# Entry
Amino acid sequence: WGFCRPPRMIAPRQWGIIGAQGDNIMLLGCIADDFTGATDLAATLVRAGMRTVQVIGVPEGPLPEADAVVVALKSRTAPVEDAIAWSLAACDSLLAAGARQIFWKYCSTFDSTPAGNIGPVADALMKRLDAGFALACPAFPTNGRTIYQGHLFVGGALLNESGMENHPLTPMTDANLVRVLAGQTRHGVGLVPFATVDRGAGAIRSEMGKLREWGKHYAIIDAITDQHLLDIGEAAALHPLITGGSGVAMGLPENFRRAGLLPLREDAATLPPHGGFAAVLAGSCSRATLGQIGLAREHMPSLELDALATPDAAALAAQAIAWMEGRIGAEPILIAASAPPEKVAALQQKLGRDAAGALVEEALALVAEALVARGVRRLLVAGGETSGAVVQRLGLRSLRIGEEIDPGVPWTYAEGQGPSLHLALKSGNFGARDFFVKAFNHG
# Structure
């Protein structure tokens, strides 16, 4: 087997006992560059029958027992040196716990700046694992992300015409992923085109082998259907390192089953019953989240914070806390600091890009703390950076992954870390328009 060899490799004679008596030995170690992306990936693995735990931040001490562990970092927009250091530390922890394969997870819209952090982190992990070659596939057809001839589409639009060109932190102005990744790495980047992918796992494996022989270290891989993702996963069964969005992880659990390492699990998504009050916090400014807020206003008490009018995190949070008093109860409440692109641009011009983002994140993290203190036990957070700030403020260290609300967005459960809490962390672009309304009927 070509899985990466951790320092404490599990001997083949032990493989047959995995899960036989409730034991879990980690098979897949994952590193995600934001918190919502981590839950998106974890949901994909749970749906395929892997018991999965999400760990918040670089692990400290022993990792939880699970078939897969996803380390959620807040590294997407961090300085590249920090992103690399955190990712390598997470990788070392996963390998020490026995992981046979490492998955580097980034956004399905390839969110990054021209300099990284996708390429630099992938380069560092490739070197650490002595991998030599890795695929790169952020496709997620169920959520409208497809790749054709190396170009990423969001719905029917090219990435750079999808609204992502207006992203406040990582504007994506080029849909050609071969070109984008090539600008972030010193290694060669090739393409496995649709015509090859459509012929199945064997053809994909062969084409990746040719690219490696030609001196390429990465392959962008086309994918427009779930079957393509399953075939890509099968083709990469022996790769020490895989990189991409959560979709390409669909085929990985079956690789472990074929190897006799993973039993069938029908209870992978089971979480304890929920209780307490419910609330939504929205910090994302994506088109999808703005639409979800618009619909939710008709169904639940809602407050929209104006960071441009009140550019102070503590003052914004105080407004929200005063408003929520007397409104927390039988029905969910919504507190949003989202705004359309022109208002975001005005705030960034006033405060600077990083300070504007930090203001909203800090304010909503303070609001989350107040909600939990007032008995909220089901909390839905929209936006990757906002989710990271909230989870860190609440001091959560790990989340067990449960049932999906919409593709890529599961309910999770935090226990033993203060009040038991059901938490859903939603990427800004994910979820149907009625997501906020229907979320509390799931899980």
Summary: The longest strand covers residues 398-406.
